[in-house]
Amino acid sequence: MKLLSLIGARPQIIKEAILNKEFEKKGIKEILVHSGQHYDFNMSDVFFKVLNIRKADYNLGVGSATHAQMTAKTMIEFEKVVLKEHPDIILVYGDTNTTLAGAIVGAKLKIPVAHVEAGIRQEPKDMPEEINRVLTDRISKYLFCPSELAVNNLKKEGITEGVYFTGDIMYDLFLKMKPYFKEDIIDELNLEENKYIVTTIHRDFNTDSKEKLESILKELDKITKEIKVVFPIHPRTKKRIGEFNFNEYTKNILLIEPLDYLSMMGLVQKSHLVITDSGGLQKEAYFAGKKAIVVMPDTGWRELTQASWNVLSEPNEIKNKFHHIMSNEISSNVENIYGDGKAGEKVVTYLESNIVK
């Protein structure tokens, strides 16, 4: 079997690297194509060492542009590669413009498309990521779902063939990288285990709204009266705090520079809980056994809120949600929501059994 993987963002690079090891074990030839949609990888050397991340066989050089331009250019350039390589299957990841472009090219050329991280659904329906993932699921032949909820989401939409619950490849990553998590930052900040919370706020709907950002900072300031708040601050958030003259609300918050994955996870796994609007961190907190308050109107990881592990919060409700989440017993139905850490192995096994004759 000859497989062509299309990636275009940091999380996709990591997922591909994990799958690549499984392809090698099975003797499956993989051609790696990078769209160039995101080109600042900024990954720790440990990632390259542990995952053996490799250079793409093709780079389409798409870069940043409008949604239409990125999608169209990726389709044009990717089609050339597909016609040259004649793959048996095309593999796409997640919900970026690169994902949708690759799926459309494969469908139009009648080459089976496999979608890793299929079945995720989130409001509002007009957000670019939601459009990309829904359309990609519609035209993919194989849909690899990170959770049972994702499988059920597809079933509700009438999609049942070629659907597999594999678990989440990002959980595979968490387990592989856990021995390398860095906890130096805890000593540097003079923190004690389980006596601080970690927060990240960076979404434009939270930071670009003066009212919402003020509410969030006021709520965090209230929480600092009870427990330390460590805030690795995103450049956008830092800029808005200055523009809106909100520095008075951050005097008691421990603001630090953004952290890489290994340091962030080292900080999270020793924390009390997490407050975030990050799609990745709300799930990584679960991997680390920590609950999260998710400052978003909805989440793509609804299985965690449905299990009462994480809770959604409006900006002005954070302190109340903080008390609520800590006063409730952990639900017993929270184990293995995202599989057993062998998602990559399962994806490759399903592909091999369906395509290799």
Automatic annotation (TrEMBL):
Key word Isomerase present: yes
Enzyme superclass (EC): isomerase
Keywords: Isomerase
Domain of life: Bacteria
Enzyme Commission identifier(s): 5.1.3.14
InterPro entries membership: UDP_GlcNAc_Epimerase_2_dom, WecB-like
GO molecular function ontology, one term from the record: UDP-N-acetylglucosamine 2-epimerase activity
This protein's record includes keyword Isomerase: yes
Coiled coil location: none
NCBIfam families recorded: wecB
Domain UDP-N-acetylglucosamine 2-epimerase stretches: 25-351
Listed name of the protein: UDP-N-acetylglucosamine 2-epimerase
Recorded family membership: Belongs to the UDP-N-acetylglucosamine 2-epimerase family.
PANTHER family: UDP-N-ACETYLGLUCOSAMINE 2-EPIMERASE
Organism the protein comes from: Petrotoga mobilis (strain DSM 10674 / SJ95)
Entries under Pfam families matching the protein: Epimerase_2 (PF02350)
